[in-house]
Specification:
The complex is a heteropentamer, with 2 copies of chain A, 1 copy of chain B and 2 copies of chain C.
Chain A (H helix, E strand, L loop, with lengths): L8 E12 L6 E12 L3 E5 L6 H9 L6 E6 L2 E2 L7 E4 L11 H11 L4 H14 L15 H14 L4 E5 L7 H18 L3 E4 L3 H7 L2 E6 L4 E7 L7 E2 L4 E2 L3 H14 L2
Parallel strand pairs in A: 3-8, 3-9, 6-7, 7-8
Antiparallel strand pairs in A: 1-2, 1-4, 4-5, 9-10, 11-12
Helix pairs in contact in A: 2-3, 2-4, 3-4
Chain B lengths: L13 E7 L4 H7 L2 H5 L6 E7 L2 H9 L5 E5 H9 L4 E10 L3 E6 L14 E4 L4 H13 L6 E4 L2 H10 L4 E5 L2 H6 L2 E6 H6 L5 E7 H6 L1 H20 L1 H12 L3 H9 L1 E3 L2 H4 L13 H15 L9 H7 L3 H8 L1
Parallel strand pairs in B: 1-2, 1-3, 6-7, 6-8
Antiparallel strand pairs in B: 3-10, 4-10, 4-11, 5-8, 5-9
Helix pairs in contact in B: 1-10, 4-14, 10-11, 10-16, 11-12
Chain C lengths: L3 H28 L11 H14 L6 H32 L1 H14 L4 H12 L3 H25 L3 H9 L4 H35 L8 H10 L3 H29 L7
The chains are: A alpha/beta, B alpha/beta, C mainly alpha.
Bound molecules: adenosine-5'-triphosphate (2 copies) and magnesium ion (2 copies).
Subcellular location (chains C, D): Cell membrane
Family (chains C, D): Belongs to the binding-protein-dependent transport system permease family.
Pfam families (chains C, D): BPD_transp_1
Chain lengths: 261, 322, 261, 261, 261
């Protein structure tokens, strides 16, 4: 673990909980969540299925209102989704009626930026995700990995303060996944984004996150936090694969034991 | 009434009779139970089927769904012209004041001239349509008006709304129109000019060939209905009024609006004639057919001989024999 | 696999064969006089009638005039239905309150036979084009409205959420996401709607008309001109199929992403 | 979230309010004599007429007899359509050759206005129940057939392949997989079909009938009994909605897995 | 690598190739595949996306006919799918209109076994996948892992000579996946099945297969075969996780290098 100098606090979550009131009795999805997100953090969240990872992300995104506790962004209450917190879903949820470029230009357009800036921003991020060649393609002709790259560029183009990702690579095959991890890692290193990412792959969390949160279910809450630096040091930069060492293996085993109960 | 009781096994189980909802001899016969004594009492069920006009009755004849059908003579011509295997056996009534061209009060239409540029509604293919066309032709304005093809109920609706100022229709809707309108011309006047229209009775030849006595009996029913009316108009009017859902007074008025024939009159030279000498009605039918042909309403106008054969008075003669 | 092409040509032959068989049966039974020409006119007679109508028109109007006026009614009614049902349907789908007001009215009139309320329409609107067009309009309105409501309620929620996260306001979401996302369903419903209006054409032209292809059939049936009835039916069948083909082609062009949502 | 329940009761109030408003407007304009009672009869008159028909019947038949005969026609026609269109549609979907033969015929007659071919049906079948029921049958047949074809062609191929791998022969596949897998679509189409037949009811009862709720409206319009027309329309609207509700309940019971394929 | 005594030869594939003839020019999906499957083999197939793994499996299943080469099972040509080769798909493709038990009984029922045997077999395999408690549940209420267990039991119940699985665990989260791997391993050890399984997870292949095939794309063919015994020896039996050692890590790196080009 490294001693790192923390960035400014962007998000502060205290004693946060969410109850779902469906047709039946209320379901306590998450409970007593305490979390502070600093600028530049790459947070990876692990936990068994149904432990409330997505619920937490939805609250941060502004899609869902917490039923208890406080959630402040830059010291202010959040009332709904806005462009400060960009979201990447597992299924890319790109707009099939727009070309690749139009999808990426969507955010800047909604911000009513001048036409010239919109084009420039889109071009810049198309380059960053290596899709400039495909800018005029329709969405449904892209492969799964390409779609996630567009989704990533779409959020990046908005330059949000925090990027939220809910299992963004969950639907990709192992190889594409490793390539995408490398891409995300490179972008994070270059742009110094703040990222909050849910994953179910321990290797992914370990190889990307500067902070790994482990959640347990019933009640869904954070039971462990790890500060890591594999993302910066222990990566084989040619292939983008994490160099596995003793420390890594021990950590992985520990996390698996933690979840698997 | 049936003489060949011994061959009852050959009688049909039921006869299907298409009728119009107008106050005529058939309606009297139906409502006063005259059919019972000639048909029902022999174990034959009479099914009465209402038709709005001869149009649907012709289709029903074509498909063999009905044996007898009442319709305007124009529809009889259509039946003959389109090759239906039927014959005309009776004239219910010669249309008089029961049909006419109504114009709305306040429309300032007082003569044929005033009709220019107007919309005139009438049910196409009906006797009213025929009379109207001839009226317009006589006045020389057949190309200066717009004819609308409407069923009688729609005519009243359009009339009430003020969409149309003139319509050629028949009772009972004509009465509705005349509540705030007047009659410019009636079919009675048109008949005087030679454009006779009538409601006639058709029978499928397949039926009449098999059961000529039943057809004769059918005519007996009709003529008895006519006799009843002539004997006591009030009583007949009261009987039909119930089925027609109008007052007996209205019914009587409507009944008086047309000419009902006795069998003897029907066999006269003015109408159907006898089996040996065709009557004048055949000529009227031919003229009407020729006119309909010029209107492209029918493709071929049958020959005079065809009409002579089509109008078959033999069953009236049979009905008078015993 | 390799037999696909061969298969599809066998199938085409089968279809052609079917129609040829129908034609031959038709020809034979009329030729042998098995049925009266009134009930089933011979193919030759029908064709003759078609040529004569083509040349001389019907009731003093050319066939094109009849078709023209029918299509004018159909077109105006469909257009009105499209421009009113789409916004109302989308709003109903998007705002529960609008739906609460409009939905039950549409649900009530939708199953009504057009002929039942045509009388009322005539009483209200008169016998002119307006009542005819209103009848067709009402027939076309319901399918589009219902499809819009269901399209909006079934919309992928991620589309809306991600738009909001990209900075879109309610208005942006409605025009840039809800509308295009519903377009494929809307298009299908327009096809249904025009079909419904087409089906109602004869009813509309039954009253106070003296033109239109539907009226032609009604009028011919009055004079028992079977061959004209057959000509009318065949023309209506073919134009009905053609309209649908045209709409389908348009659909493939406009909502090319259909099926990829 | 917590407002769901409150929302839905506001919405119910809105719906009720809408109908109340319609009633009030109706009441007011007739009370003030703004329109002739022929065009819009007063609610009171309509209710009076309803009571009188309920008590005395219409044209010598009780209201229940009219409804009964109409539903008898509807029921027989729909049943016939169901038992013929489902097998034919499924076969058409499963065997390309059957489709090549049947499909174009259905596609041809489907857009035809029922009134156009009703004339022909009457010439062929007469004016009895048979032609009425055939008309309704044809209206109901096409939607079910078309839905069956598309259900089978869109069937998840894995269902069929896995059945074969489990030892099912063609017959087994057809009855144990193709049929149940198509059931949800079939059910939706049955609802459409009965709706179509219901819409055609008035046309069917227009010719040579003297019973049926559709005939009642036609007959009333013949004598301009506006209040009877309104009673008929309201009864048809309500029964139409009730039929659909009933079918929907049945659907939820039988194809409970709908939406989970 | 271990020296193992091979079982009987079940499947022999020689110089097998498949061309897809789509609308455009033919696509050579796989080419020159040579493979012999012995009784008791647990074959895992790895390879980049689109290299033809699924195509090979489809040929073996009998869903697809090869365009070149030979494929014999027990010395005989295969004409189509049958119960000797059971298939597990990525999406479980269970029948949602059947209960858990009915799904498992499907195969034995298709084989027309006596009722008593069917029940017995189903119960036995329900126990083996730990779902006896859920036998009456409907399919759509199961979690992803449970669905795959039913799919597994459904194929097992048929006692096929070979089980073919196309990324059976691809859609599951990391933890459920590890549990399922343990289950498959246990079943394989107990029943001595012959399994041919496609995966995109190198860890999965290494921890399960007795033989791992690595395929390359264009042309899709087998470029490497490894004989392993991690499944038998190097497994931490309590958690079902593979004990990672030097040999394992070296192998994994080698395979990743092989695919990643
Ligand atoms: N809309 C909802 N209404 C009611 N309960 C819900 C709703 N969404 C989620 N839940 C419940 O809340 C709990 C947490 O769900 P959530 O989706 O946040 O889990 P998760 O950790 O994201 O799971 P996964 O890894 O499967 O995505 C679960 O028990 C789930 O059943
Ligand atoms: N039905 C088809 N028609 C034409 N080409 C096809 C068809 N199915 C697959 N292909 C092509 O054949 C090649 C092999 O496809 P296949 O699905 O076997 O790959 P795969 O290894 O299973 O990929 P994945 O890991 O993504 O499942 C691909 O190039 C694919 O595009
Ligand atoms: Mg989740
Ligand atoms: Mg595959």
């Amino acid at each position: 673990m490294k001693d790192k100098n923390l960035g400014d606090i962007i998000i502060e979550i205290k004693k946060l909980g969410v109850d779902y009131t469906g047709s039946n009795e209320p379901v306590k999805a998450i409970h007593d969540i305490n979390l502070t997100i600093h600028r530049g953090d790459f947070i990876c969240v692990l936990g068994p299925s149904g432990c409330g990872k997505s619920t937490l992300l939805k609250v941060i995104a502004g899609f869902l209102k917490q039923t208890e506790g406080t959630f402040l962004m830059n010291g202010k209450e959040v009332v709904g989704p806005d462009w400060n917190r960009g979201v990447v879903f597992q299924s890319a949820s790109l707009y099939p009626w727009m070309s690749v470029r139009k999808n990426i230009e969507f955010g800047p357009k909604m911000k009513r930026l001048p036409k010239k800036d919109i084009t420039e921003i889109a071009t810049h991020y198309l380059e960053q995700v290596n899709l400039l060649k495909f800018e005029d393609q329709v969405i449904f002709e892209l492969s799964g990995g390409m779609k996630q790259r567009v989704a990533l560029a779409r959020v990046l183009a908005n330059e949000p303060e925090v990027m939220l990702m809910d299992e963004p690579l969950g639907a990709l095959d192992a190889l594409t996944r490793i390539q995408m991890q490398k891409l995300i890692r490179d972008i994070w290193k270059k742009n110094h984004n703040t990222i909050f990412m849910i994953t179910h792959d321990v290797d992914e969390a370990l190889s990307l996150g500067t902070r790994v949160l482990v959640m347990s279910s019933s009640p869904g809450t954070i039971i462990k936090e790890l500060n890591l630096d594999f993302i910066e040091n222990a990566v084989d930069s040619r292939t983008g694969r994490v160099q596995i060492n003793e420390e890594y293996l021990k950590l992985k085993e520990a996390i698996l034991d933690l979840i698997d109960t | 009434g049936c003489e060949n009781g011994g061959t009852e096994g050959e009688l049909p189980k039921e006869v299907n009779i298409g009728y119009l909802r107008v106050p005529n001899d058939e309606m009297v016969a139906k409502t006063m139970g005259i059919y019972d004594q000639y048909f029902t009492d022999q174990g034959i069920t009479c099914n009465f089927i209402i038709f709005d006009s001869g149009v649907d009755a012709n289709k029903a004849l074509a498909s063999g769904s009905i044996d007898f059908a009442t319709m305007g003579n124009t529809n009889g011509i259509i039946a003959l012209s389109s090759g239906l295997d039927v014959e005309l056996i009776w004239i219910h009534e010669v249309l008089g004041k029961i049909e006419g061209l109504a114009v709305k009060n306040g429309s300032n239409i007082n003569s044929a001239e005033n009709l220019k540029g107007q919309k005139i509604a009438t049910p196409f293919a009906s006797t009213a349509h025929y009379s109207l066309l001839n009226y317009l032709k006589e006045a020389g304005i057949e190309n200066d008006v717009e004819l609308l093809d409407m069923q009688t109920q729609d005519i009243v609706a359009a009339w009430e709304r003020g969409d149309i100022q003139a319509a050629y229709s028949w009772q009972p809707t004509l009465g509705e129109l005349l509540k705030n309108g007047s009659m410019l011309v009636s079919s009675e006047e048109m008949a005087e000019k030679g454009y006779v229209t009538a409601n006639v009775c058709l029978v499928r030849k397949e039926f009449s060939g098999k059961y000529p006595e039943l057809v004769a009996n059918f005519i007996k029913c009709l003529s008895e209905g006519g006799d009843t009316y002539r004997r006591d108009g009030q009583q007949s009017a009261a009987a039909v009024a119930k089925e027609l859902e109008i007052t007996p007074e209205e019914a009587l008025l409507q009944m008086e609006g047309s000419l009902w024939l006795t069998p003897q009159e029907a066999l006269g030279a003015d109408y159907m004639g006898t089996t040996d000498t065709p009557g004048h009605f055949s000529k009227i039918m031919k003229d009407t057919a020729d006119f309909l042909q010029t209107q492209h309403s029918i493709e071929i106008s049958p020959s005079q001989e065809a009409f002579d054969a089509f109008i078959n008075p033999i069953y009236i003669e049979m009905s008078l024999e015993n | 696999m390799q037999n696909k092409k061969k298969n599809s040509s066998t199938n085409r032959l089968l279809t052609i064969g079917t129609w040829l068989a129908i034609l031959i049966v038709w020809f034979t039974i009329t030729k042998l006089g098995l049925v009266s020409p009134l009930v089933v006119p011979s193919p030759g007679a029908v064709f003759q009638t078609f040529l004569s109508i083509l040349e001389n028109g019907y009731n003093g109007r050319s066939l094109w005039a009849h078709l023209g006026i029918s299509f004018y009614r159909l077109f105006v009614a469909s257009l009105l239905a499209i421009v009113t049902a789409i916004p109302l349907g989308l709003l109903s789908g998007y705002f529960e309150k609008v739906r609460a007001i409009v939905d039950s009215i549409v649900q009530f009139y939708r199953p009504l036979p057009p002929l039942a309320y045509y009388v009322v329409l005539i009483l209200w609107l008169g016998i002119d084009e307006s009542s005819k067009i209103t009848l067709l309009y009402l027939a076309a309105f319901a399918p589009i409205y219902v499809a819009c409501v269901s399209a909006v309620t079934n919309i992928n929620q991620d589309y809306i959420l991600s738009a909001k996260s990209l900075g879109a306001n309610e208005r942006d979401v409605f025009f840039n996401v809800v509308f295009p996302a519903s377009l494929p369903d809307i298009f299908t419903s327009i096809r249904t709607a025009i079909g419904m209006a087409y089906t109602t054409l004869v009813s509309a032209e039954m009253v106070a008309a003296s033109s239109g292809i539907g009226w032609m059939v009604i009028d011919a049936s009055r004079y028992l001109k079977s061959s004209v009835i057959f000509v009318g039916i065949i023309i209506m069948g073919i134009t009905g199929v053609l309209i649908d083909l045209g709409l389908r082609a348009l659909e493939n062009k406009i909502v090319y992403w259909k099926g990829y949502q």
